[in-house]
Amino acid sequence: xxxxxxxxxxxxxxxxxxxxxxxxxxxxxxxxxxxxxxxxxxxxxxxxxxxxxxxxxxxxxxxxxxxxxxxxxxxxxxxxxxxxxxxxxxxxxxxxxxxxxxxxxxxxxxxxxxxxxxxxxxxxxxxxxxxxxxxxxxxxxxxxxxxxxxxxxxxxxxxxxxxxxxxxxxxxxxxxxxxxxxxxxxxxxxxxxxxxxxxxxxxxxxxxxxxxxxxxxxxxxxxxxxxxxxxxxxxxxxxxxxxxxxxxxxxxxx
Length: 254
Known about the structure:
Blueprint: E1 4-8, H1 13-24, E2 28-33, H2 36-45, E3 51-55, H3 61-74, E4 81-84, H4 99-125, E5 131-135, H5 148-172, E6 175-181, H6 200-206, H7 214-226, E7 231-234, H8 236-247
Helix pairs in contact: 1-7, 3-4, 4-5
């Protein structure tokens, strides 16, 4: 039986790279995104792989249910892996962020992940050995200035993952994982933070930090799906933060 993965944010970036990897390894792939043109491009780049597009705003519970029901109808009832990947990266000093920007980060990065878990659970329960993977971040290891709301959502996703892995593993045999990348050169970094006149990409370069290729994150998703680690850290910056958090937290503010 062909295994099946559903990926949110599948129209670009990490979602697109993950779709390409899993399709190349024989999986049926479902894409969820608000960007229909991006999903069409992902499918075209896949070169005829078993891939389908499903319009999805992750902030909408009804759209979640409809998208997953449509996908499992194509996959023969299987949902081996749900990749909760869609996210936004608005940042800047807390007092300069608009109410709308703060709400968007919380609604997409946290509520969207919770809604995905809700909608996905019946289908994951029906698929032996299923897995839920949530995109977290190095910001889920250390909350840096100007990333307060974003980091808050990623710490919350990390906590949700820990709790659900224990709950669902015991009750249903479902594994729950995160991937925790450092900075990825995706459209998220095109955003200009509140109180700044340069993009996130320009800021990362000015700090002398590295970009982790999306293909490496896709491989981390595969490792999370097939391995035993609950949190898979990706990229030099994220690995450095993970080390310091564990062994030298007093150095983190530097």
